Structures are given as structure tokens and as C-alpha cells.
Amino acid sequence: MNTIAIIIINIGIYTIVIIGINNYSFGRAGLWMLGHIGFFGLSSLVASLCILSFGMPPFLGFTTGILAAAFAALVLFPLFIKLRGEMYILGALAFSEIVRALHIQLYGPSGVSHVWARPPLLNSHGDWSFILFVILPCLAISILITHLYSKLSIDRMAAIVREDDTAAELMGVNSHRIRHIFFVWGGFFGGLAGVIHLMYSGGTDPNMLGIYLSALLFCLGLVGGVNSLKGSIIGAILYVVLPRVIEEIARYIISEANITAGVYILYGVIIITILRRYPKGMFGQGNHLLRST
């Protein structure tokens, strides 16, 4: 049962990360934010510093971490938007690497542990209490905000901006402002996921902040379907559950020494197969999984 709880917690955390990418930074702002995991790392770093170094109460420290990630997005956007093509992607990746380097510089290559102790309310029934009082409310808020945005006129303006900046400007839409708003929301959700992970694990891990995880989560959002809540959830499930399933199956057909390589190969084959079947993602516009025949 504890394994199931851990899987649910991780799906919740990474769904929020992918929502930030898939439904905001890329899905609405149209920016290839391959360094999005930097917001995840920045919020946990700032929250840890606030709690350990400045003696803030944990929940105030967590809130400060989330706001720091959103503020970083607010400040970084004008810098990123001036970059074009490959230079923008390199800038985004550089951001996540800078955050990772700060983690290592401040807390070493293994990060920091014991940032806080979970209160009885979040520990009374083990991980299930954490799911009930943290994961589900935060996930519900993330989904609700995203759903509400989809009903507003700004969402339709964002769709025009993402397709054609020039056409949007001719229609009187401030494309720069639209992108900026959704980029900041992307940073907010990345920061929220980072703080939830810190609350659950009690510490930070710089090894999570590398280019590999950033790129993989971005790609899995595309596999699920751009600008789709269902696609973001599917992306998180593919990240958390699929490797575990493949590993269990691989144990029966691959020798123990080759398990790791076999899992990576099978994982890649499955992702490519999904993309061939659903080129716009499993729940992408015009290629909805439930409408496919």
C-alpha cells in the first residue's frame, strides 16, 4: 500500500510540473522552456534557505519559495524573449543548470536533508495523510486555475499569439504581455511542485535538476498533448508508472545485468510508438485519444 501512495504522490507532483510547462510556458506562452525544472529547484532552494538559515516557520518558507519561482519567471521573461531559436533553448537550459549549481554550492552534491519535520496532521496515516491534505488540494487548485483560464478571453488571445505574433499584434493583442502572464504562471506551478517535493522528502536533491529530467518532462507533456490537462496527467503517469511496469516485465525477458539498458530502450520504443499513433499527443487538439479510431 505504501508503494501505491508513493506513486500517487509522485504523479501529483509531476502533474503540477508538467501543467506549468504544457499548459502555460509552452502551451499558452509558446516558449520552449526546456529548463522549466529550474523553477522546481529554485523554490525548494529558497524555501530551504528561509527555514534553515533565516529561521522562518516552515509554511512561510514554503510560500516564499513558490513566490520566488514566480518572481524569477517574471524577471527572466524579458531576457528570454530577446533570444531566438537555439539561443533561447540554451538560455533556458542554462537557467536550470545555474539553479543546480547553486544547490551544490550551498548544500553539496547530495543536497540538504531534514529541512523540516512533518506535523502530525500530515503524518497520522503515513503517506496517505500527505496525499489527502497536500497532494489532492494542490492538484485540485492547479487544475481549477487552468480550467478557469481556458474559459477566459485571454486564453483565446494566447492561442492567436502562439500561432502568429504578427497577426495578434494587428488584431490589437499585446502578445508580449500575454506571453509574460502565462510564463509567470508556469514558474508558479514549477515552484509549487518543487515545494511539495521538499515538504514530502524533507530535503533537496541537485541530481533531479539536470537537463535530462527537464527535457524528459517537456517531451512527455507533448506526448500527452499540448495545452491539455488530461495530457499533463498522462505525461506524469508515463514518467512515474511506465518505467516501473517496464522494469517488472523486463525482469522476465532480460538478464539482470542488462535491466537498466533494457528499460531505457523499451521506454523509448513505447514513447515513439505513441507519437507515431498520435502525432499531436494523446489528448492534443485535433488528435484526441478518445476520438481516435
Describe this structure in words.
Helix 1 runs parallel beside helix 5 (127-150) and helix 2 packs across helix 8 (175-201). The protein is globular, with a radius of gyration of 19 Å. The longest helix has 27 residues, at 175-201. The chain folds into 2 domains: 2-228, no CATH class; 241-293, no CATH class. The protein is mainly α. It has 12 helices and no strands.
Mean pLDDT: 87
Low-confidence stretches: 286-293
**SSE-based structural type:** mainly alpha
Order of helices and strands: HHHHHHHHHHHH
- Domain count, please report it: 2
Tell me the span between the first and last alpha carbons. 36 Å
- Oligomeric state of the chains? single chain
Shape summary: globular
Taking all Cα atoms into account, the compactness measure Rg is 19 Å
Which strand-content bin applies to the residues?
A: under 5%
Label this structure with key terms.
293 residues; 2 domains; globular; mainly alpha; 12 helices
Summary of the model, kept short:
The protein has 293 residues and is mainly alpha-helical.
Describe the protein's topology.
Layout: H1 2-25, H2 37-52, H3 58-80, H4 86-107, H5 127-150, H6 153-163, H7 165-170, H8 175-201, H9 211-224, H10 229-240, H11 242-253, H12 259-277
Helix pairs in contact: 1-5, 1-8, 1-9, 1-10, 2-3, 2-4, 2-8, 3-8, 5-8, 9-10, 11-12
